Structures are given as structure tokens and as C-alpha cells.
């Protein structure tokens, strides 16, 4: 184990090298824990094709699910940023498809969230609204809202999230995201607070941001249910 700048450390696990926060409390809320590998003695056969292992047919563990497979059924190496691996790692066919779909979020939608969008924000049942820029923090743990005032929402304290739409778009296409309704518990409080956001000037950018946030919500839900 060796320390590197920016509060992260390089850790070698049986699955490969991982770049993780120095303090585990600062893990990204999208991150997943490494799975426990199925013990070798409990998998005499490939858990996909049922091929029996021997000196020629070696067993391999999927780095995402921890199950045991032959080389044919676990040959793909795919990036797995949710487990902080530095390099692409071996995964079974099923897991590799899931990881490949998640890469779109990390390659595209995460950048949209970090860049931010402009919204008209209303707190609770207040009659007052404020135009604010909302963006995801660099460590992925907070939503920063900046306008005349500033406040933060910790993603781990969001209890519900609903994407609002503007109805059917012209031509009968799919509806476009126009806002978001959040319920969350502020730090030091057990009482839920409501936050409503409606797209401001650049509605196209706001819609892209909201679509990315919708995907982020799915990853958050998966991480919590792990």
C-alpha cells in the first residue's frame, strides 16, 4: 500500500490495483464494495457452462460478482470505476455487460453533472424561489447549489427523487425532463426537507443534467442495496 496525492491511496487486492480515498468515509456514493470470492473448494465446475476444472481448465473469479468461471466464460477485461480499479479487470459475460453500460455514465453523464445546470430552486413550501447553478461535487458526495445564497445536499441523505417532465414533446416523442423534486434530511436533522428545481434559461442543458441525475439515482439505489 502506498500513499498518493489528493487524499487517495493505491491498494492492491486479489482483484487488482485500486485507487481509493484515504478515509473510507469519503467514498463516492456510487461506489461498490469488492465482492467476496466464492472459495475454490466450493466451485469444482464453471458456474456458467458447468465445465469441470482441472490442470488445463483453470478457474477464474469475476471481479464484480465474485463467482467462479472457466476462461471462456470469464475472459473479458472491462473497466470497473465503481470499485475504483486502476485497470480493466476480468469479468463474467453478464457482469461485463453491466459494467460497459455504466461506463457511459462515467464517460459522459458524470461530466454533465460536474458541469452543472441552471435551475429555479424552491425550498420546502416557501413562496420564494432563487435561480441557482446546481452541480455535483468533485468527490460525488454533494449537490452544490449556488446563487445569491449557497447550500449543499449530501447525496447519501436523499430519501426520494422524482424527475419532473414537461409532457409530450412536439411530434409525439418522449417527454423532456424539466425539473426535479427531492426529499432529503439536512445534516443534524431527522426531518425531511423538500427541494424543487425547475429548469431556468438553458432548458436543453438542464434537461441533459436531469437525465444524468436520473441515471445517478439508479446507481445510488444499487449501491445502497448492495
UniProtKB/TrEMBL annotation:
Question: Gene3D superfamilies given for it?
Answer: Zinc finger FYVE domain-containing protein 21, C-terminal, Zinc/RING finger domain, C3HC4 (zinc finger)
Q: Does the keyword Zinc-finger apply?
A: yes
GO molecular function, a single term: zinc ion binding
Matching SMART domains, A to Z?
Answer: FYVE
Q: Which UniProt keywords apply?
A: Metal-binding, Zinc, Zinc-finger
Q: Which ranges carry the FYVE-type domain? A: 40-95
Q: Which InterPro entries does this UniProt record tie to the protein? A: FYVE-type_Zinc_Finger, ZFYVE21_C, ZFYVE21_C_sf, Znf_FYVE, Znf_FYVE-rel, Znf_FYVE_PHD, Znf_RING/FYVE/PHD
Keyword Zinc carried by entry:
yes
Under the heading Pfam families, the entry gives: FYVE (PF01363), ZFYVE21_C (PF16696)
Q: What protein name does the entry list?
A: Zinc finger, FYVE domain containing 21
Amino acid at each position: 500500500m502506498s500513499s498518493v496525492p489528493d487524499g487517495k491511496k493505491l491498494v492492491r487486492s486479489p482483484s487488482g490495483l485500486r485507487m481509493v480515498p484515504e478515509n473510507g468515509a469519503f467514498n463516492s456514493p456510487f461506489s461498490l464494495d469488492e465482492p467476496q470470492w466464492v472459495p475454490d473448494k466450493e466451485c469444482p465446475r464453471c458456474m456458467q457452462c458447468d465445465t469441470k476444472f482441472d490442470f488445463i481448465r483453470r478457474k477464474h473469479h469475476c471481479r464484480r460478482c465474485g463467482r467462479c468461471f472457466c476462461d471462456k466464460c470469464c475472459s473479458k477485461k472491462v473497466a470497473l470505476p465503481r470499485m475504483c480499479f486502476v485497470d480493466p479487470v476480468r469479468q463474467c459475460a453478464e457482469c461485463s455487460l453491466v459494467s460497459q453500460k455504466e461506463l457511459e455514465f462515467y464517460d459522459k453523464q458524470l461530466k454533465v453533472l460536474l458541469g452543472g445546470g441552471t435551475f429555479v430552486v424552491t425550498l420546502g413550501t416557501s413562496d420564494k424561489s432563487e435561480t441557482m447553478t446546481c452541480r455535483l461535487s468533485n468527490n460525488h458526495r454533494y449537490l452544490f447549489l449556488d446563487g445569491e445564497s449557497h447550500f449543499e445536499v449530501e447525496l447519501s441523505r436523499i430519501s426520494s427523487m422524482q424527475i419532473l417532465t414537461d409532457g409530450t414533446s412536439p411530434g409525439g416523442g418522449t417527454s423532456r425532463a424539466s425539473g426535479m423534486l427531492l426529499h432529503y434530511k439536512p445534516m443534524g436533522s431527522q426531518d425531511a426537507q423538500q427541494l424543487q428545481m425547475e429548469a431556468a434559461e438553458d432548458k436543453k442543458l438542464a434537461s441533459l443534467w436531469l437525465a444524468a441525475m436520473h441515471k445517478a439515482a439508479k446507481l445510488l439505489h444499487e449501491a445502497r442495496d448492495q
